[in-house]
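Propose amino acids for all 56 sites.
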């Protein structure tokens, strides 16, 4: 339940509501981008296929 509180904080502390929502969307985009990059770095498809017995 933290994301709504963070969004509310960003909207409430900004000069305008529009600017607050912009900050919230930018923060969400940065977090999603970071998760995508970490997934590309740490997910090893070949190892996972072998572990699940799907190789071949």
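Proposal:
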């Amino acid at each position: 339940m933290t994301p709504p509180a963070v969004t509310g904080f960003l909207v409430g502390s900004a000069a305008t509501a529009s600017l607050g929502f912009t900050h919230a969307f930018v923060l969400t985009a940065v977090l999603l981008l970071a998760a995508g990059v970490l997934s590309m770095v740490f997910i090893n498809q070949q190892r996972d296929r072998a572990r699940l017995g799907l190789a071949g």
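The mean pLDDT is 93. Residues 2-51 form one domain.
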